[in-house]
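Quiz preparation item.
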């Protein structure tokens, strides 16, 4: 499906809202899959959640240093979270998951910008919804300075941090084909996290 074949009720929406509509079902399945595995029922389960987060952010970490993306999106380098997830794992005495293959986006590698934008949309949206996760982490004795660094809000607040990102995304001039690649990138990102959840929780690697 491309932007030319969107349903009438979504065709006139801004890009971010169309992304939300396109990826909504996949997003909902992911959320249900994560919460059904009780990631905040113990520190051990939370450690599995951190490994999932690490696996996802490893895929996109190079994007935060991409100069073209940096010129399009506000405070891109400041939105990077892989190092914070690594710190959270270290706080709990856990090693990062084993590295298997190269990440999807590599430092200095060629980047398809629309696809990258779709993946970054998923990453930024997860940060917007992290307030609930941070509250759940507090029940395990974790907070923004120990074990849950990556769930902390931006200094300006989650809402404004998200709005500046979505405003920049909505303002980009993309062709219908590029728009379609961005939508596909968002879908692929959600599916990738879902696969990480299934592997990480249902058959967790040894610590």
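Solution:
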């Amino acid at each position: 499906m491309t932007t030319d074949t969107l349903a009438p009720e979504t065709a006139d929406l801004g890009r971010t809202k169309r992304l939300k509509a396109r990826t909504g079902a996949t997003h909902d399945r992911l959320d249900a899959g994560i919460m059904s595995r009780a990631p905040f029922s113990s520190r051990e389960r939370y450690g599995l959640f951190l490994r999932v987060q690490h696996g996802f952010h490893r895929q996109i970490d190079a994007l935060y240093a991409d100069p073209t993306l940096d010129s399009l999106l506000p405070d891109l380098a400041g939105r990077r979270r892989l190092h914070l997830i690594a710190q959270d794992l270290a706080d709990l005495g856990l090693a990062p998951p084993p590295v298997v293959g190269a990440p999807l986006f590599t430092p200095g590698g060629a980047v398809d910008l629309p696809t990258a934008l779709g993946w970054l949309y998923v990453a930024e949206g997860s940060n917007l919804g992290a307030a609930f996760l941070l509250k759940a982490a507090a029940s395990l004795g974790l907070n923004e300075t120990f074990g849950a660094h990556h769930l902390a809000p931006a200094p300006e607040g989650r809402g404004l941090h998200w709005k500046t990102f979505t405003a920049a995304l909505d303002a980009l001039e993309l062709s219908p084909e590029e728009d379609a690649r961005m939508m596909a990138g968002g879908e692929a990102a959600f599916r990738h996290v879902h696969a990480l959840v299934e592997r990480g929780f249902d058959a967790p690697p040894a610590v």
